[in-house]
Structures are given as structure tokens and as C-alpha cells.
Amino acid sequence: MHLRAALLVLGLLLLVVTIGGVFTLRLEKRYIHSVAMEGSAYKDMSVVWQRAAMAESDILPIYGSSELSKHFGNEPQRFFASYPTGFAVSPVGRGGCTSLILGEKIAAAAADAPRERKLAISLSPSWFFHTEAHHRWYVGNFSAAQASALIFSPRLSLELKRDFARRMLDYPDSVEHEPLLAFALHRLVTDGWTDTALFRAVTPLARVQNALGRISDHVAFAWHILRDHELPGAPRRAASPLDWETILTNADGDTTGHHAERMKDQSTHFFGNRRFVQVLDESREWNDLELLLRVARELKLDPLLLSIPIDYPYYQSVGVTRESLDQYLEHLHALAARYDVAVNDFAEHENDLAFFADHNDHLSARGWLYMDQALDLYYHASRRQRYFTPIHQADQQYP
Length: 399
Prior knowledge:
Layout: H1 2-35, H2 41-45, H3 48-54, E1 59-63, H4 76-79, E2 88-92, H5 99-109, E3 118-123, H6 135-141, H7 144-151, H8 158-168, H9 179-190, H10 193-228, H11 244-249, H12 256-264, H13 273-282, H14 285-298, E4 302-307, H15 312-317, H16 322-338, E5 342-344, H17 365-379
Parallel strand pairs: 1-2, 1-3, 3-4, 4-5
Helix pairs in contact: 1-10, 5-7, 5-14, 8-9, 8-14, 9-10, 13-16
């Protein structure tokens, strides 16, 4: 009798879970186009929300940092909100999301993505002007669910997981409340055959844990849709071919306030040009960006790197020479070429004060229009762009 009762309860529980799972998946599928353009801390930490956006071919994910959460006008998630040329943009990222964090997010979100899935990655040059990402940047944006999805992914190589594990353990307090993940990271970095065997032994258990975690993630996403939205259904689409020449010609660009603020806020952070060059060469951000590009290569993604241009007048005003600043672009293009990744550096705008909202890698409404154009061209390219933008060359076009 007790066994029957237990089986009955188990059967009812499975039925409820199945019905709930079908309901949440249909809800996500129906409303993802209405919520994809949102940005929030929950979205940044979620696996389910980002995977739902990644699964839709008419949604282009863009990963970046604080520039995606600033509201200076013409941000891509707003500019393309009505699908004017057939796609919308889903932003992921907030202040402090540097390459290592973005690599973890993309690995988790694109786990089931189709081959050659397009996505954009916004890079801030200032990330590379520090020898190491600030501790609070990494820990404040760390998602154990995303890190675990990467470490236990069946599509990523053991070598890549080991390299990620070494970097993750540079911030050990991020996993101090995640015993299974911490155990796996320590086994990976030890690199002995016993430790490798132990890592492989706990992998099935970790994947079950990940699956259970995604159930709660699905529930949270569904609850967000039901509670925080009026369930409008699919967003209104207004097809409107974009005349980019006219749009960019008519873009406003008042530089007066920005110029005054920038000159007032001069800094000697780099202690001179020599220190700047040393920091740029030693920055661990280059290694982290390479980890991100290795994720894209192993998952067979088709990323576009969008490098926010350096505000040359500002950095020159604090003692950094043009030749030293150019080394950032040289390093970036060399790394992109190594992994056959398209990059647009907007270097032609380095002296355009109207392109910037401030000198902290934030774009003005005018600057975002050029980013929007790059995304539009990239999304509609008949094949992936395979040139690499020459430094200081303007007016590039996608094939």
C-alpha cells in the first residue's frame, strides 16, 4: 500500500513537472521576441533566457559591458526594437563584464546553438589598460550556473576547460559556495591522470545538477514573463529599409559638454606613457579574450568583434602617445586574425568627439548609430565577413 502511494505521488509529480515544463517552454517561445530586448541582472546571470534568444534566428545577441546599460540614445536593442530590417538585438552585459565573464556567458548560452550562429561582442579598450580585471568586476558578474555549463559542457575540449579553470581560481571566493564546481576546477588545474579521472567521474552528477538548476531557471523566466509583462504577444514589426547614408549624415553630435568634462577630469592613472605600454603588454585581458575566441571556435560560432574606438584626444591629454595607443589595435587585429574572427574597430572615429558620451568607453547617440549600422550589415551579410579591418581605414563594407 505504501509503495503504491509512493508511486502514485511520484507519477503525479512527474506529470506536474512535465506539464509545467511544456507550459514554460511554450511561454518562452511565444514571448521571447517581446522580452529579448530587455536588460537586467537576472538576464545577465540566466542560462535559459540567453539560450532562448540564441535559439531564434531573427534575434542577434550582443555581449558587452556597461555601454549596453547606458541610455544615451540609439542603443541597438532600442534602435532595432521594431525589427526594421528583420531582426532585433538582445543585449547581455553590464558594468564589469570583461572577456572572461563574457566567455562563460557565451559558452553557456550557445551550448545548443547551430553552426555559424552569429553574435556580436562589444569590446572596451579600457579593459586592456589594466593588468588584471578588478576583483569586484568578476565576482559581481559571476554566475555559477554559467560557469558550470562551461566546465561540464560536452562540446568543449578538456584543454579549454583547464585553461578556464585556472583563470576562475584566480577568484576563488566566487566558487566557495559551489562545492561541486570548486572540486571540478581544482581537479582540472592539477592535470594528473587521477584528477582527470575524478573530474570525469563527477561530470554526470554535475550535469544532473545543471539540469535541475535550469528547471528553476525556466520557472523564474516564466514567472518574470507572467508577472512583469502584460503578455502583449509578438512585438509589432515595422519593416523599414534603412538609408544609412542619410541617417548618419543627419546624426546630431554636440561635443561642447563632453570636451569640457573630459579636459576637467584628466587622470595620471598610467604614470606616463612607458607605464601605459607596460600595462597594455602585460594585461591578462588578452589571454581572457583568447579564451573567449576559443569558445567561439570550438562551438563553431560566427562572432563579430566590435571594438569601441579609443578616445585618442583624452589619453593623449594624460601623456599617452598615439604610437602607444595604436598598439591596442595591433594586438587586437593580430588576435582576431589568429582565430579568423571579423572585427570592426571604428578607428576612423578616434578623434570624433561626437562619437563618445564620455571617455569611459561609452558611446553617444551618434556613436551608437555607427554600431547599429555595423550590426545591420553583419546580420544581413550573405556570408561571414572574412576581412580584418585595417587600422585607421574608414568606410568598410560587408560582402
